[in-house]
Amino acid sequence: MQATLEEAPQPPTLGENEHMIELHCHTTFSDGTLSPTRLVESALMAGVQAMAITDHDTMSGWDEATQAAIEFSTHYDQPLEIVPGLELSTVHNEKSMHILGFYPDRDKLTAPLQERLAGRKRRAQAMVDKLEALGYPIELPEMGEGMAPGRPHIAKALQTAGHVQDMREAFDRLLGEGKPACVEYEKFSSTDGIELLLSCDAIPVWAHPFLFRGGELEIVLPKLLEAGLKGIEVYHPSHTDYQMEKLKGICKQYNLLMTGGSDYHGPGAGHHAGLNSQNVPIGLLDALKATKLSQVAS
Ligand code: AMP
Ligand code: ZN
Ligand code: FE
Ligand code: FE
After folding, report:
1. For 20-113+185-297, which CATH class?
2. DSSP state of 164
């Protein structure tokens, strides 16, 4: 039987203090499992008011997300604002460091990102070659033009080929940092990343600082601030309450923007945080927008 509109799921009715946002989400244009359209629909159903599309090293998901947000918002009579963003992969002290960039000028960032994407493709191939040499041949799925391959795609291919039981085993045995088939990003330093984002009018924010394995926060942060870092991702599923409180204090001390999100990758991606899991207050987005406006004006 076909579901009528009345029976179809509806977005929740929100109370005055329940206006929540997501400033960190992935789609199938990088290693998320939901297309931008499906992600937007899920976000509306979870009561998200504004959502940043922050795929790894690509802006390719923005247009579809924006279009879907317009259509679904009208259909459900509930607005969902799409915030353009990305999660830039950089290296600091030879360890992976992710820098979020919000509101970049797409025209300025397109060409430099092409180079980052090409690097990701070369890196994926290097990991496939390493795996082959280790006795784990895999077939990587076709990746379209603006899509960013990452270790999760390789983990999935290892699972499909029957070399590992699940994604976790793939990372634990072969793909995690320092494991035999892991290949680091091509040389692109955190400070180069921050400078690139600034030159493209984006707001650079250090993503999930407590996932960083290349040094103490107190020592690393000053170097990033010197390069022009504007904010820190405070709310993240990997952070403990204590860590989030600490980050809030640091943001206050250095007058930095706070952001946050569930780093949602969709169902079956090996990440456990659901949409709206972090209850990120909508006020953080106002501060982000104010910074963007003052950046453009100066
Ligand atoms: P990449 O950008 O190719 O280095 O892949 C990074 C992504 O891999 C992260 O955003 C996570 O989604 C995923 N990832 C990293 N480490 C692990 C791990 N130990 N277990 C599962 N997923 C992981
Ligand atoms: Zn990811
Ligand atoms: Fe990340
Ligand atoms: Fe992420």
Report:
1. alpha beta
2. S
